Amino acid sequence: MKTFDLTGSKRESIGKKAAKSYRKQELIPAVLYGGDEVVHFTVGKDGLRKLIYTPEVFIVNLAVDGKTTPAIVKEIQFHPVTDEVLHIDFLQVFADKPVAMEIPIVLEGLAQGVKEGGKLSTEMRKLKVKGLYTDFPEKLVINVENLGLGKTIQVGELNFDKLELLNGKDNVVAAVKMTRAARGAAAAAASA
Fold this sequence. Notes:
By secondary structure, the protein is of the alpha+beta class. The chain is built from 4 helices and 13 strands. A hairpin with a 5-residue loop joins strand 2 (27-33) and strand 3 (39-44). The longest helix has 12 residues, at 180-191.
């Protein structure tokens, strides 16, 4: 899994008023949970762009006042109108403690149903998995070559080494849907 280096500095004060003043200085308030103590700190707005606005998932090497900690992004709060980042929560990760996070899905191969005139539809972009962060891949690759026309792949059918899937077993990950042209061809073949 890719890593991302981020540097922050401890906050002197916490609360709404302090958070507002940090945001005026182009700093984003953040919190690191999961360790021995909760750390309140700020990070520069520019440093976060490559971490937030990407489909990729990173392990963040968080350096706050000289102490580096491995962490994952747990939650990001955005402004409802301007979409600016208001606050970020990080969760400290350990090599021996399992953690849950969402990992992007990549569909691989040409589905059998697509060859027959169907359209491949991705129903989920990410899957929530639980495991040791050292076992997390950058993306979950799902082979769809055997997916027929009108068929689906559900979470319960998937299996990844050393990872536990936390999504509902009945959730559809990918499907090959009938197109109008395929329906028309099927109807013409049935009437002939």
